[in-house]
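Methods: example folding runs. The two proteins below were folded one after another, and each record is reproduced exactly as written to the output file, sequence line first and structure-token line second.
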Amino acid sequence: MELASALDDLSDRLAQALSAGPAAFADGESLVRLNTLRSRLEALVCQATVSFEDSGAYAGDAAKTATAWLATKTRLPEQTIRRDLRVGRAMRALPLAAEAFSAGVLSSSHLALLGAGARGRCAEALVEHEQ
């Protein structure tokens, strides 16, 4: 399946779920599944955001940074985009945590905390225990 088609399918499925209304998902099992899906989607967004930054593709629009470009195009606060970048970088540094995040076992909040540890005084020990 080509990427654009996959994103279109995801958008269509989300529209179907939204049309069902929140009450259709107000049970515990659905909420657990929704949060797992949210983590999986956030993992993809964080990784793609870092890859976008690495590509420099934003420079063609005269943007100085990927953060500035994304903030303009998505209307997201720069703080949100910077967090996605930090989490995406943490995923690169901590592949086992990244795998758990991509599977929906961990959340972006978990990766943000682990990433902060990977940059701090505990970085060496954390990366060593990751392996």
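Second run, written to the same file directly after the first:
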Amino acid sequence: ARKAREAERVQKAREAEQARKEREEREKKEREQAELQRREVELTQLDGEIAAMQRRIESGGSSAGDSLKKLAALVESRGELAEKIAAKRRAQAAALAEQQRQRAEIERRRREELARAEAEKERLRQVQLAAAEAKRRSAVEADIADYEKIVNSSGGSSLAGAAWTGLVGKYPSAAGIEPGDLATFRQVVIEGISLAELRERERAAAAAAAAAEARRLAEMAGELVDVPGGCYRMGANDGDSDERPVHEVCVDGFAIGKYEVTQGQWQRIMGNNPSSFKKGDNYPVERVSWNDAQEYLRKLNAK
């Protein structure tokens, strides 16, 4: 804060000095402009004298003071005065350009100073925010330490509920957290993540894990399709003894491979390929017994 005040004081002093210089420059310019106007009046007068003498000489009505030498002197004086006026105007133009350059430079420096001052203010603000945040975190950790001290004491089991209520009561954002879940408490209260966002992250993580597991199983066992459960009537009243009577049978839903198990899938699960026609991993496996299939399923499920 002291540096910021010092920078502001220096900036104000510079602005005052610049205002003084501009005032002096303005007064100087006014004096020079008045001098230039005076000389322009003189030039106009000389032009008038030269023109009048020219007319008298040409008309033959010259006065006693008219002569070629006098006319030459007037022309020479006019030339010198015109050159002085032109030089003065060039000097004024150059001075104006220099003044504009200096003003642009001053403005650039002023903006740089302001930018540095703003940057310093922002840095100090960030330092203050960081200090406040560290203090807040320290206070929360102190409350957590008090809670743990209570629940870990000899009679902590009976005081755990009251200790948790007291802890959560200080931090409204922690409402809804399962008692004793300090990991979630720290994420919500210290890290500032809402409980709803944490739950959504958990759901997203679970969905991602399920999708990954599905991809892993699909890679090992192939794509599965769901077959819904249902009931049907089975048997015949006039059939063999093991077919009578017609009765209702219900089965649960299950998943079945969309395609035959390939030789590559069997090799990955069982470590062998019993097929006679070994033409590639994407061909169906064959020469597999019922018991082989059961062992395949057992190992697949164990994965």
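Comment on the second run: The two ends are 65 Å apart (CA to CA).
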